[in-house]
Amino acid sequence: MSPLSIKINAVFDEPACEKNRSKDAKARQKGCSKPLTPGAAAGGCPFDGAKIVLQPITDVAHLIHAPLACEGNSWDNRGAASSGPTLWRTSFTTDLTELDVVMGQGERKLFRAIREIKEQYAPPAIFVYSTCVTALIGDDIEAVCKRAAEKFGLPVVPVNTPGFVGSKNLGNKLAGEALLDHVIGTVEPDNIGPYDINILGEFNLSGEFWLVKPLLDRLGIRVRACIPGDARYLDIASAHRARAAMLVCSTALINLARKMEERWDIPFFEGSFYGITDTSEALRQIAKLLVNKGGDPELIQRTETLIEKEEAIAWKKLEAYRPRLEGKRVLLNTGGVKSWSVVHALMEIGIEIVGTSVKKSTVEDKERIKQIFKDENHMFESMSARELYDMLSEGNADIMLSGGRTQFIALKAKTPWLDINQERHHPYAGYDGMVELVRQIDLAIHNPIWRQVREPAPWEYQPALEEELPGTQSGPETLHDFERASLQQPAVSASVEVSR
């Protein structure tokens, strides 16, 4: 069995996943994701999933060992933000051609590409990604990376995630395995403190983690590594010296959190920074874990003081929106942690949730939704485009919150829509992020354009106009009669149209 196959089997057998533990050995080997059907693989491949997890490491060079299209299709696939380095925004690819494949030049070309990146950019590390083509032709990227690391004196990390081995979620987990095997634990920090934590599965989309980090700074809690959002290579390499960890997205990096706890005794919990209540609870859990690991018990009291102050400020800002949004109905078509955390956040201000998608949610996510709603009627595994359109066009929801793939369904149904997935342009985490989310929902629902597009078109008024005009027949039956009636009263028709 190849090393990649062994790694995949280990990822599928996840002890921290309750759903996996309930399966027999044969069913466990099939993994948690449903097999993709032909023509329905729009969710992304393992290479795409690995790139999502690792590309936000901002000072690293990400080299794609593949034909050009692989990098072209995956570049900038998430709206992560950086507070400093911009090297991660540069695309690097070996651009394999048919001639390279036929002549067996792939490994040699990869080695030269690593050397050029080292000489021109001098990054602290280079991540090398394999794809379908290079895996099929048998290029040994691990051997090339090992030789290049010895030759050039910098870490060269192989990320073995060819697209044909599974789903995007598998790629997320294989990226976490690459960090465990080659990065985390390779650097010993000289500034270890009692209040160091790791944040796992936080991507800093639209810079939203920057709304949370100041809260931790005020408590004296240092984020040693945020993986992967706005991360630096050396921070991740020394992440094994953190005292506790918070897992934001369990579907992506639960294997990373569990193995860091097993190897370095870093306890973790799964939480959310979406919504006032969940943000406060996350801060309490972080403080509790740090105190259990030997921190000053006074940290818990300081955390409660901060929570009380920040919650008061946030609720005061939200009160202005409550009369405008209370009772409004929201359809949530997303998945993962947002399937329950955003639900809880919106219900806090009186918004009604008519349904939430759980297609990409874990068993634990679904259990949280059941606890919030007290039933399963608001959960749907998957809803076709036609069903979404029917639900929106019939007025069952005042707004849909989803990703960009379904925005045109809402627009066709003449229903407000707001992006809450990775392509969004506004940060929604923390107390200030919750206020921003509510503000954006208010702007979308009360935008005057929706009242205008829902009105009948001007030509649909014409039969009513004909009834009002003196000396004309009520509602011409044919197009010929309609044209003749319009010609008889041109001035009056024009003036009525303008007045309307």
From TrEMBL:
Domain Nitrogenase/oxidoreductase component span(s) in chain numbering: 45-443
One GO term of the biological process aspect: protein-containing complex assembly
**What InterPro entries does the annotation carry?**
Nase/OxRdtase_comp1, Nase_comp1_CS, NifE, NifE-like
**Which residues lie within the region annotated Disordered?**
467-500
An example Pfam family from this entry, by short name, is: Oxidored_nitro
Q: Which PROSITE patterns match?
A: NITROGENASE_1_1, NITROGENASE_1_2
Per UniProt, what is one GO molecular function of this protein? nitrogenase activity
Keyword Chloroplast annotated: no
Question: What keywords are assigned to this protein?
Answer: Nitrogen fixation, Plasmid
Q: In which pathway does it act?
A: Cofactor biosynthesis; Fe-Mo cofactor biosynthesis
Q: Where is the composition biased (Polar residues)?
A: 486-500
Question: What family name appears in the similarity comment?
Answer: Belongs to the NifD/NifK/NifE/NifN family.
Functional note: This protein may play a role in the biosynthesis of the prosthetic group of nitrogenase (FeMo cofactor).
* PANTHER family, per the entry: NITROGENASE IRON-MOLYBDENUM COFACTOR BIOSYNTHESIS PROTEIN NIFE (PTHR42956:SF1)
Q: What is this protein identified as? A: Nitrogenase iron-molybdenum cofactor biosynthesis protein NifE
Which gene name belongs to this protein? Answer: nifE
